[in-house]
Amino acid sequence: MNLSIRAPLYAIDFVENENDLWYAIDYNIAPQIKGTGVETLITASEAAMLIKQSSCKLKER
Fold it and tell me: What is the C-alpha to C-alpha distance for residues 35 and 19, in angstroms, rounded to an integer?
């Protein structure tokens, strides 16, 4: 968990320029997980529980 980002789930899209520098171009706090391969590692219920736990930890800070 990146504590500087105050969201339990997020995605950041990057692009590379001609100088090999990466720029963040999109920040999404509700990314779609389907099709990423995560669904083969944990169940939807487990993912929901982990997101809820992360959300609670963020509220405590």
Answer: 31
What is residue 39's DSSP assignment?
Answer: G
For residue 13, what are the contacts with CB-CB under 8 A and spacing of at least 6? 24, 25, 26, 28
Spell out where the chain has E strands.
11-16, 22-28
Q: What is the pLDDT of residues 11-34, one digit of tens each?
A: 999 999 888 899 999 999 999 888
Buried b (16+ CB within 10 A) or exposed e, 10-24: eeeeeeeeeeeeeee
